[in-house]
Amino acid sequence: MQREIRASVPAEIRAESDGIKVSGYAAVFNERADIGGMFVEVIEPGAFTDAIARDDVVFLINHDGLPLARTRSGTLTLEEDERGLRMETTLDPEDPDVKAIVGKMKRGDLDKMSFAFWPEIQEWDDAQDPPVRTIKQAQLYDVSIVTTPAYEGTEIALRSLEGHRKQTQRQDNFSAARKRLRMKQNLELKARENGA
Fold it and tell me: By C-alpha distance, which of 179, 190, 47 is closest to 123?
């Protein structure tokens, strides 16, 4: 399973007496996001409920490197509210990795949020152009503060769209074959009834 990465809104960064507090929304519910012009994606409220209770999610820089915080250790807090998936952490100002980025975060060079996920339950609406994908339940890998909020993983997302279309085609082909078989059986039954 390859993860998909999506960008979100700016993070809030503040220096406090106990460290550098970072908070913000890694994902926003019910907003239509254009995924590389291939499809539109909407995240349904509650999509992360199971992930918050189950997944060990890490806080990274640009979805890479050593974790600055994580849910398993209690240094990263994730919660869903009416707006979306909210994250909060207080970074250790003595951590060399934090020292290397805190100036960039305060200047706004590194201030956007992003999240990496895998869609566990999704629905596709091909009746619209472009198609609409609704994420109903997702596995979470990380939340990240990023330099450029890009829709990385659009190639993976495209594979997801193609997979959905292949599955739909197989179902349509199976359904058509089943209809033909049913018609043939009905014709044979009528022929026997007429001949009897």
Answer: 47
